[in-house]
From TrEMBL:
GO BP: cell division
Subcellular location: Cytoplasm
InterPro entries named among the record's database cross-references: DivIVA_domain, DivIVA_fam
Protein name per UniProt: Cell division initiation protein
Amino acid sequence: MPLTPLDIHNKEFTRGFRGYDEDEVNEFLDQVIKDYELAIREKNELYDRVQELEERLDHFSSIETTLNKSILVAQETAEDVKRSADKEAKLIIKESEKNADRIINEALSKSRKISLEIEELKKQASVYRTRFKMLLEAQLEMLNNDDWDMISQPVIEEEEEEETYENI
């Protein structure tokens, strides 16, 4: 068991013949008591400081553990978000590809339909041109026919006769 300052203070030495000088021993003991009290006070202060630092260390260790768990949760959440975003991106791409295929198929269908309509219009234009040409040729043939000359001859003769009578 360690000595206390009180043990040192109360310690009495037996006196012998021609022993130590009592004042000198007491003075030395007083100095030892002061130094010992100081050492004990420092020890207690250091003990308290160690306790405080251990509490802070425990606190920071707890914070570290919590932060590590939080980081793990954040990483897992980030991975989940990334997986979800990848999945959504793939779905968007797939839907876009379907829409693109549908649009292309519709455009091809419309293109074929328009091509058929153009061909039909070309045929109709050709038929119309042929008919119009035939009509014009028939009309020209009628105009070139000698029958017109015969029809117009009596009118010319009548006009000439009328002019003759008028002059008379």
